[in-house]
Write a sequence for this structure.
């Protein structure tokens, strides 16, 4: 099991996956808006999305868990 962490503080702009989705390493998962720039969060490994802990519009902090993979 792996956690996908926010690389920076910001606001969730888009969630690009759904629970149950099969993903590969480096797939795009989430877009965070910070300082008027869009920052894409990529998968650290292949797996299945077990849980999504954020939704569009949520404010997130640096190192916050966004997605749980299994």
């Amino acid at each position: 099991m792996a956690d996908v962490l926010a690389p920076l503080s910001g606001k969730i702009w888009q969630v690009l996956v759904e629970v149950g989705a099969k993903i590969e390493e480096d797939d795009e998962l989430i877009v965070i808006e910070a300082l008027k720039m869009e920052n894409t969060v990529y998968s650290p490994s292949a797996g299945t999305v077990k849980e999504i802990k954020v939704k569009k519009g949520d404010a997130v902090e640096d190192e916050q868990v966004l997605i749980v993979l299994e």
Observations:
- The chain has no helices and eight strands.
